[in-house]
Amino acid sequence: MTKSLTAATPEIMSSKLKILVPVKRVIDFAIKPRINKAQTGVETKGVKFSMNPFCDIALEESLRIKEANKGLVEKIHAVSIGPTKAQDILRTALAKGVDTTTLVDVGEEEVEPLQVAKILKKVVEKEDSNIVILGKQAIDDDANQTGQMLAGLLNWPQATNASKVEFSGDDVIITREVDGGADTLKAKLPVVITTDLRLNEPRYASLPNIMKAKKKPLEKLKPADLGIELAKKLETLKVEEPPVREPGVVVASVDELVSKLKEFKAI
Question: Is there a domain that residue 9 lies in?
């Protein structure tokens, strides 16, 4: 398991961490999505849902920060914005080690990234969080926008696509993989960090902890409780499967390859 933290002690940082971790319920990554009959989106009936993989990485990183830096983290709060069933992934987060959770129940309505960011801003203020760690994107819409929008709304520094997170004094040092190397950023609290796949390998929740999590309290709110009115700015007109690709052709010689390329007008 890859380690992504360096040792730091509570005495080094002047303020304790109050970490907010947004987690999203999505169709399980191992399932191939299917277009619904109305061609308005992906079929969601009768399919398995789980925590978004990037959110799971963000959750794992928060837990590692708490474990590696005794006394530094005051609390880890997980929040999910979705249907009532999304409380399942919050129970999973509790089983893995988060302290408290909130479900912002939006029913079956799809919430756009800007609205998600506005809701998260209200939760940040409510929980008095000083660091938000979230997945860089969700595997259902692949928007990769929420973290950036949240940082903009909060007017906080941001570090996206983190592959390593460290602490040095009052600074948070984030490493990002870029073409041909690594990009290192330094910021002070408060800060928004979005996580990349290589940051860590998430743990599994043990069965005893899963059973205990079922009895733990879970806060439930509506967007209106946070002063947010959901309003869509985008409309999906039609969703279609990509065209089926024709199978490749195996050639026996360079001359045949050139002939085929000319046939397909590639050269």
Answer: no
Do the domain assignments include residue 253?
yes
Range of the domain at 135: 17-263
162 domain-assigned: yes
**Of 132, 19, 133, which is closest to residue 74 (Cα–Cα)?**
19
Q: Identify whether 32 is part of a domain.
A: yes
* CATH number of 242's domain: 3.40.50.620
Tokens describing residue 184: 């290192």
* pLDDT (tens place) for every residue of the chain, 267 residues total: 333 433 333 345 667 899 999 999 998 888 888 888 878 778 778 788 899 999 999 999 999 999 988 888 999 999 999 999 999 999 999 999 999 999 999 988 888 999 999 999 999 999 999 999 999 999 888 899 999 999 999 999 999 999 999 888 788 999 998 888 888 999 999 999 999 988 999 999 889 999 999 889 999 999 999 999 888 888 888 888 888 888 888 888 998 898 888 888 888
Domain count for the chain, please give it: 1
DSSP string covering 114-148: HHHHHHHHHHHHHHT-SEEEEES--TTT----HHH
